[in-house]
């Protein structure tokens, strides 16, 4: 497994990580035994970066990850997040970034994960009612106390990133990025590279759409949140299938899977880009790691670039009441 540096503070991770969200919520039924086996298989393959958040489940995903790594903590770069507040019943209660909540959330995550420190601690969403300086100042105190090693942000705007980085070095910024979600290229990526911050794309497979297996919503569970996503509705769905067909054709030419082509495209965007494709099945982890052996040519990349941006809004943000 290749390694990559996130930021300039010393954080080193595997070139590809594992997103654990879907193991507990949003993507149909849970299977904790298979999910834990999937995490173990990822570690066997050299994946070190595991990504979770307190809101996933809610709360249960951190507990699941904690159980999975209890006897192999030293193999893991553990990333989790705070700020999206949820009730025990799953209700979305808004976003908080005030100092008191930062401390409270961290203690709760440490307890659920069963660890004494978090390697990479993200603010999951920016609190519009709390200055970013207060939030990152409280996060910096966690670093000083040894409870957190490195800091990250998720879905933050360029100016917010700059203000945060001035308070304490930010090692990673997380947002959606894939062949069909190219928005970060305009302002986010240039800002990160100017400041020396690593980039961690989530949903690099377009929530499964870019794997070529999802041509309609019929096969999704009733509670699968993708059913409500704008890019998977009506005319948007039909238009976006054309992007998948471009990926499918290239996969056939290269003797690879569509998922491997989509991930190879993300990897080709720079050594500071570390995608975290999510899955809850061992077979898909093995397939995704195989993308690191796929080298796309200049012509391949041009063909995928020509596929264009996806039709429809990115998604209804999960930090809101309406997700």
**What's the total count of β strands?**
11
Q: If you compute it from the alpha carbons, what radius of gyration comes out, rounded to the nearest whole angstrom?
A: 19 Å
- Overall geometric form: globular
Strand content: 15-25%
The N- to C-terminal Cα distance equals 35 Å
Structural class: alpha/beta
**What is the makeup of the main sheet?**
7 strands, parallel
Low-confidence stretches: 316-323
Average predicted local confidence, pLDDT: 91
- Estimate the helix proportion, in percent: 25-40%
Going across the biggest sheet, name each strand in turn.
3-4-5-8-9-10-11
Would you kindly provide a written description of the structure presented here, covering whatever features stand out?
The chain is α/β, with parallel strands linked by helices and 323 residues long. Helices cover 36% and strands 15% of the residues. The chain has helices at 32-44, 60-69, 99-113, 132-144, 158-167, 188-195, 234-254, 258-267, 282-289, 298-305, and strands at residues 3-6, 11-14, 18-19, 49-51, 77-82, 84-86, 92-95, 118-123, 148-154, 172-176, 198-202. The strands form 3 sheets. A 7-stranded parallel sheet has the order 3-4-5-8-9-10-11, covered by helices on one side. Helix 1 runs parallel beside helix 9 (282-289). The protein starts with a strand and ends in an 18-residue tail after the last helix.
Write the SSE topology.
Layout: E1 3-6, E2 11-14, E3 18-19, H1 32-44, E4 49-51, H2 60-69, E5 77-82, E6 84-86, E7 92-95, H3 99-113, E8 118-123, H4 132-144, E9 148-154, H5 158-167, E10 172-176, H6 188-195, E11 198-202, H7 234-254, H8 258-267, H9 282-289, H10 298-305
Parallel strand pairs: 3-4, 4-5, 5-8, 8-9, 9-10, 10-11
Antiparallel strand pairs: 1-2, 6-7
Helix pairs in contact: 1-2, 1-9, 3-4, 4-5, 5-6, 7-8
């Amino acid at each position: 497994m290749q390694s990559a540096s996130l930021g300039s503070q010393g954080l080193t991770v595997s070139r590809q990580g594992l997103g654990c969200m879907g193991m507990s919520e949003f993507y149909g039924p849970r299977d904790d035994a298979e999910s834990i086996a999937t995490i173990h298989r990822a570690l066997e393959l050299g994946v070190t970066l595991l990504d979770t958040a307190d809101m996933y489940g809610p709360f249960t995903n951190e507990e699941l990850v904690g159980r999975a790594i209890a006897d192999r903590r030293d193999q893991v770069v553990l990333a989790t997040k705070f700020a999206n507040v949820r009730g025990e019943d799953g209700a979305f209660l808004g976003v908080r970034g005030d100092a008191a909540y930062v401390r409270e959330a961290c203690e709760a995550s440490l307890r659920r994960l069963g660890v004494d420190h978090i390697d990479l601690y993200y603010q999951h969403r920016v609190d519009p009612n709390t200055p970013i300086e207060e939030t990152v100042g409280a996060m910096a105190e966690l670093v000083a106390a040894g409870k957190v090693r490195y800091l990250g942000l998720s879905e933050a705007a360029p100016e917010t990133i700059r203000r945060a980085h001035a308070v304490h070095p930010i090692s990673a910024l997380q947002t959606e990025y894939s062949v069909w979600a190219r928005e970060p290229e305009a302002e986010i990526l240039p800002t990160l590279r100017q400041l020396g911050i690593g980039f961690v794309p989530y949903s690099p497979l377009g929530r499964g759409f870019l794997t070529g297996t999802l041509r309609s919503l019929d096969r999704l569970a009733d509670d699968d949140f993708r059913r409500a996503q704008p890019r998977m509705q009506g005319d948007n769905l039909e238009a976006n299938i054309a992007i998948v067909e471009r990926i499918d054709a290239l996969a056939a030419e290269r003797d690879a899977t569509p998922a491997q082509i989509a991930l190879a495209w993300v990897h080709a965007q720079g050594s500071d880009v570390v995608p975290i494709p999510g899955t809850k099945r061992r077979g898909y982890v093995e397939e995704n790691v195989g993308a690191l052996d796929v080298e796309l040519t200049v012509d391949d990349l041009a063909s995928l670039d020509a596929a264009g941006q996806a039709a429809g809004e990115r998604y209804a943000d999960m930090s809101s009441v309406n997700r």
